[in-house]
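Researcher: Here's my situation. A collaborator sent me these components and asked whether they could plausibly form a single complex. I don't have experimental data yet, so a predicted model of the whole assembly would be a useful starting point for our discussion.
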Amino acid sequence: DAMVIQNPRYQVTQFGKPVTLSCSQTLNHNVMYWYQQKSSQAPKLLFHYYDKDFNNEADTPDNFQSRRPNTSFCFLDIRSPGLGDAAMYLCATSRSGSPLHFGNGTRLTVT
Amino acid sequence: GQQLNQSPQSMFIQEGEDVSMNCTSSSIFNTWLWYKQEPGEGPVLLIALYKAGELTSNGRLTAQFGITRKDSFLNISASIPSDVGIYFCAGQLGSAGNMLTFGGGTRLMVKP
């Protein structure tokens, strides 16, 4: 019954090797978000899609990109991962004016 | 960016005890949310509050939206070991994009 599904749950990549994380939803929510969460910290918003409109947070590094090919899917691309990019990446969805629903996250390790 | 002040940062309590945590902000929010996050999982929504002064319960959990719209508290009664996790408050303005501002989290540990 998972409604926000993230794959994979665990991802290992090498320093500088591009990696893509995926998120899908069965809720038909119009807004999708990507958050980065480091150990014992609150999630930090990277960007979000309001329908097809992409909104980047001012302090999100250029190394992070996103794609939303349709309502159900959203991807996070990290072009050249550094050691500091190791974190849990959380996808979330919502309808306008409603609480966010989070996926279980992808834990990224950079070696 | 803006952050909510959440306290306490951590709590270590005995099973059966009641727990209280709160969040304060210098800005007004239209919605207050409380999430619980267990290790290796994403945050799960516990309670959503939409009106100033609103008091809402979900089982052993009770949360209130402060009358000034700048604060909220979460109480857990008769804690059990599965209450262990990190509890996050979040404020939401409710405008387009629904941006959340998170508190720093309260780590709850329960001793059986």
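Model: Some features of this prediction you could bring to your collaborator: The first strand of chain A starts at residue 4 and ends at 7. The CA atoms of residues 38 and 64 of chain A lie 16 Å apart.
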